[in-house]
Design a protein that fits this description.
- This protein has about 270 residues and is α/β, with parallel strands linked by helices.
- The longest helix is centred in the N-terminal third of the chain and has 19 residues.
- About 40% of the residues lie in helices and about 15% in strands.
- The protein is globular, with a radius of gyration of 17 Å.
- It contains twelve helices and ten strands.
- The mean pLDDT is about 95.
- It is an enzyme of class 4 (lyase).
- GO terms for molecular function: indole-3-glycerol-phosphate synthase activity.
- Its EC number is 4.1.1.48.
- Belongs to the TrpC family.
Length: about 270
């Protein structure tokens, strides 16, 4: 059993445990459930330059502890001040050290920006959880869902007013998973078997994603040159977590990257 299979097996147990504790009707009574959501897809589509989706991430199965010395409400607020177009907050506890508490702190501190619930969605119940904690968008990972499950979950997410970010790693996942109820396609540059990253994955898949979908690139993004190169291939957004979180001040790291992006655009005279 590989790490992804272990995560999904545990996630299904976790969902069963959560259902026994709190019903969907109880989730529907939570403070944020009826909150009007904010569109990340619209903000990205309308942007004339590369935009960063900044992530709050404490640890990962492959890298261990990344940063457990910072607070979600402070880091995410700093991200917003530095120009993030959206936020991503991990809610998986066992493998990534996230929690609903982290998400709620980020939500309360940043009312006017879309936030992705970053987790392994395997059940419709989790969509109601996402709504209850104030998420605007959920993640569906093609590597751990069937095409039929992606259709069912994405339709239900839309029924609840949530946008859908579909994450793919290769041509096969992309071809099998695209559908009308996907808002954003995220190409993950990380090989799930080796955990190596290569932006060539995003470049390879860029022309295979129809223009009707907003495209973002994920993993292995560390510098302005890489981001601007991918922007030229049609990617509007760039999800970055570990690069920022490994620093003492993730918000400052984002601000520095934003400055580099501006300088590189000016130097190269790009029309963005």
């Amino acid at each position: 059993m590989n790490i992804l299979e272990k995560i999904i097996a545990r996630k299904k147990e976790e969902v069963s445990e959560s259902k026994a504790i709190k019903s969907i009707s109880a989730l529907e009574k939570e403070t944020f459930f009826d909150r009007k959501t904010i569109s990340a897809a619209k903000a990205l589509r309308n942007s004339k330059y590369p935009r960063i989706i900044s992530e709050f991430k404490r640890k990962s199965p492959s890298k261990g502890i990344i940063n457990d010395q910072v607070l979600p409400e402070i880091v995410t607020s700093d991200y917003v001040d530095a120009g993030a177009v959206a936020l991503s907050v991990l809610t998986d506890q066992d493998f990534f050290g996230g929690s609903f508490a982290d998400f709620l702190k980020a939500r309360k501190a940043n009312s006017g920006i879309p936030i992705l619930r970053k987790d392994f969605i395997v059940d419709e119940y989790q969509l109601f959880e996402a709504r209850a904690i104030g998420a605007d968008m959920i993640l569906l990972i093609a590597a751990c869902l069937t095409p039929g499950e992606i259709v069912t979950l994405s339709k239900r997410a839309h029924d609840l007013g949530l946008e859908v970010l579909l994450e793919v790693h290769n041509e096969q996942e992309l071809a099998a998973s695209l559908g009308d109820t996907i808002d954003i396609v995220g190409v993950n540059n990380r090989n799930l078997k080796t955990f190596d990253t290569s932006i060539e994955t995003s470049i390879l898949l860029s022309e295979q994603i129809p223009d009707s979908f907003v495209k973002i690139s994920e993993s292995g993004l560390k510098d302005a040159d890489t981001i601007l190169r991918l922007y030229q291939h049609g990617y509007k957004g760039f999800l970055i977590g570990e690069t920022f979180m490994r620093t003492a001040n993730p918000g400052t790291a984002l601000a520095d990257l934003q400055k580099d992006l501006t300088q590189h655009r000016n130097i190269n005279s790009l029309v963005l």
